[in-house]
Amino acid sequence: MSYLLAAYKVSIARACSVVGLHRSMWYNQAKKDDSEVVAKLTELAEDLPTRGFDVYYNRIRTEGLVWNRKRVLRVYRGMRLGMRRRHKKRVPTRIQQPLETPGCPKRSMEHGLYE
């Protein structure tokens, strides 16, 4: 981008439109320093490798660190720490057989107890 400005002597607006960026992206550079979050998530991932994001985030909040959930989640996904979801184990299908018919006539529970 600065090459366009120097070589062709065009305005910032023109250079941004040629490249396909918004002008605000030229003026507002990202100032994201997530090194603290990365260090904390790395520490938690080493201590609790089988846990997921919710457990890590709750531990961070319990320790008194006030980081935005969206920020921590963005860093968590960027580090590719996502765990696979557990799914229900399927019960094997049974072989259907006809029901057995009782040999004697129906009896209720009351008659069975008092006879």
Q: How does this structure look, described?
A:
This protein is mainly α. It folds into 2 domains: 1-30, no CATH class; 32-83. It is built from 7 helices and no strands. The longest helix is centred in the middle third of the chain and has 13 residues, at 35-47. 5% of the residues are buried. The mean pLDDT is 86.
Secondary structure: number of strands:
0
Protein structure class: mainly alpha
Number of helices: 7
Q: What is the multimeric organization of the chains shown? A: single chain
Helix and strand sequence = HHHHHHH
Task: Give a quick rundown of the structure.
The chain is mainly α. It contains 7 helices and no strands. It has 2 domains: 1-30, no CATH class; 32-83.
